[in-house]
Amino acid sequence: MSQTVLEINQLETSFTRDKQKIKILRGVNFSVNKGEVVGLVGESGSGKSLTSLSIMQLFHDTTGKIDKGTIKFNDQELTKMTESQMRKLRGKQISMIFQEPMTSLNPVLKIGRQLMESIRLHLNYDKEQSRKHAIEMLKKVGIGRAEELMDEYPHQLSGGMRQRVMIAMAMSCNPSLLIADEPTTALDVTIQAQILELMKGLKQDHETAILLITHDLGVVAEMCDRVVVMYAGEVVEEADVFELFANPKHPYTSGLIRSVPKIGENKEELDSIKGQVPSPSNMPTGCKFAPRCEKAMAICNEAAPPMLNINQNSKCSCWLYEKKDVTVHNE
Ligand SMILES: Nc1ncnc2c1ncn2[C@@H]1O[C@H](COP(=O)(O)OP(=O)(O)OP(=O)(O)O)[C@@H](O)[C@H]1O
Ligand SMILES: [Mg+2]
């Protein structure tokens, strides 16, 4: 039996604007097992980053707040933890590669000191061992002049270098869960391939569970075992990676896959999903995707579809699959 490392149930997270609560995550459910890479995909604004920030409980100075639901990490309930308990977990047991590298790099501390502090704190290494490990990690993420870089400040580095330093930091303590939010978007393709290989190595050598957030479906196909598709703050489909690409169930997932440009196809206009993600403060009733869906039926505008177990490898919340022989999940 696979061991569940992360299990998110009915997670609801909101922001407050002008004293009004704006619900962004509206009941997110999924899990990640030991040694598994789960891809989290969906258009911009669907709530992918907020899901990861909710797991880490890093709302910084925003009004973000978890309202409901549970986040179980190994045997611990993260929503019940104090900030000091979370601080002990972050960086050691759960690491995150942020979409924006400056979020996790301190601008006034040298790269070496930042890396070494995290390594010393979490791996109990002495100064010399920490320095050696830090340099090794920088080399692993493709930084040639690793020793020199140890004495530089984040602002002296290019965006791609900063991203790699952050990746080195996130991977340096062998976390049991690595959350990578668009880890390679800012990097050129050769470095991207290198980083993806490193992540695969982490999974193979340490059975790290990885939650990989990306817009790049090529990366998903290459890296992931399972895929969770989010739309407007909800999970609309979850499937084994082969099943997802060969036989997408939700019309939204089909649309995302169709929108990927293919080499050799010389179309005048790329396929795209018409319309826009609805505003969190003005969600349609019924299925949130219905106003954009080519297959929408009358019921779609009236009631939200339940999550249905389609087969062993896939779940989908869409009225198209509502038949008597499928079991209703989570509703
Ligand atoms: N600090 C904030 N205050 C208010 N609303 C926010 C804040 N951060 C995010 N949101 C809102 O939460 C929603 C989800 O944002 P999130 O960053 O999770 O999207 P995403 O799926 O990661 O998108 P992208 O692919 O562009 O990174 C968006 O509607 C966004 O406007
Ligand atoms: Mg994001």
Task: Compute the average pLDDT.
Answer: 89
Tally of DSSP helical segments: 10
Helix content: 25-40%
Uncertain stretches of 5 or more adjacent residues: 324-331
Query: What's the total number of strands?
Result: 13
Largest sheet: 9 strands, mixed
Please report which band the strand proportion falls in: under 5%, 5-15%, 15-25%, 25-35%, 35-45% or over 45%: 15-25%
What is the end-to-end distance? Answer: 25 Å
Order of helices and strands: EEEHEEHEHHHHEHEHEEHHEEE
Read across the widest sheet, the strand sequence of neighbours is: 6-7-8-3-9-10-12-11-13
* Rg result: 21 Å
Q: Give the overall form.
A: globular
What does this entry look like structurally?
The chain is built from ten helices and 13 strands. Among the domains are: 101-174, no CATH class; 249-262 and 269-328, no CATH class. With 331 residues, the chain is of the alpha/beta class. The model is unreliable at 324-331 (pLDDT under 50). It starts with a strand and ends with a strand. Helix content is 30%, strand content 24%. The strands form two sheets. Strands 6-7-8-3-9-10-12-11-13 form a nine-stranded mixed β-sheet, sandwiched between helices. A four-stranded antiparallel β-sheet has the order 2-1-4-5, covered by helices on one side. A hairpin with a 2-residue loop joins strand 11 (307-311) and strand 12 (314-316).
